[in-house]
Amino acid sequence: MSKRLVAPSILSADFNRLGEDIEMINQSDADYIHCDVMDGVFVPNISFGIPIIQHVKKVATKPLDVHLMIVNPDQYIETFKAAGASILTVHYEACTHLHRTIGNIKANGMKASVCLNPHTPVHLLEDIIGDLDMVLLMSVNPGFGGQKFIENTYDKVRKLKKMIEAKNPDCLIEVDGGVNFETGKKLIEAGVDVLVAGSFVFGSDDPIDTIGKLKLV
Fold it and tell me: pLDDT at position 199, please?
């Protein structure tokens, strides 16, 4: 049974009034606050880094779900813990020694998550899945918000769900990219636990209502 959790992505928030947008998420039924950190090297965009996470943490009452789209994430694990991350996601494609990276995230008191890009098959996680708290599947190519959903994601979720049920039933599946009511419903049916939504939430007339409805898809 999927958990039906929602993590609004502040990449789509209005940074002129970021504090107000975080307060909105606090008041909503959201479960996490999703923070996309991009370095312009691993992905072709630069978003925000440590200072923004620190400021978000001062206002947030929900756990910070921090997604590192950066090269060499190992050198920043302690820094993101100090900044306020509760869940830290690193990319499979960016980690040469993934087992060591996951161990370090957990040793720093955070939940450990691994992200796969759209082209990366889920079977590559077979030997690490037992150590993970969450797997994040990108359903768009990472780097920019508002992209079209990649349909192959549903099959990927089903394959990952089978692996998780066999090896680590407590591990959550999170999906980010192109999430709306229609795709969200299909993703939950396929086995997703956490829906990340950015432009769909922040571009709506009533973000709190949209978050609430996403939890019911």
Answer: 93
What is the Cα–Cα distance from 207 to 105, expressed in whole angstroms?
32
pLDDT digits (tens, 9 = 90+) for 79-130: 999 999 999 999 999 999 999 999 999 999 999 999 999 999 999 999 999 9
Cβ contact 8:33 at 8 Å: yes
CA distance 148 to 49: 26
Over residues 131-148, the pLDDT tens digits come to 999 999 999 988 666 678
Binding residues for substrate: 9, 67, 143-146, 176-178, 198-199
pLDDT higher than threshold 80 for residue 164: yes
C-alpha span between 53 and 33 (Å, rounded): 10
Q: Which residue among 21, 36, 65, 133 is the active-site one?
A: 36
CA atoms within 13 A on the CB side of 112: 22
Residue 36 designated active-site: yes
CA-angle at 68, arms to 203 and 136, nearest 5°: 70
Q: How far is CA 18 from CA 37, 60, 62, 129, in A?
A: 16, 11, 15, 35
Judge whether 65 counts as a catalytic residue. no
Set out the domains of the chain in order of their start, with CATH numbers: 5-214 (3.20.20.70)
Distance of CA 93 to the CA centre of its chain: 16
Write the CB contacts of 28 (distance below 8 Å, at least 6 apart in sequence): 8, 207, 208, 211, 212
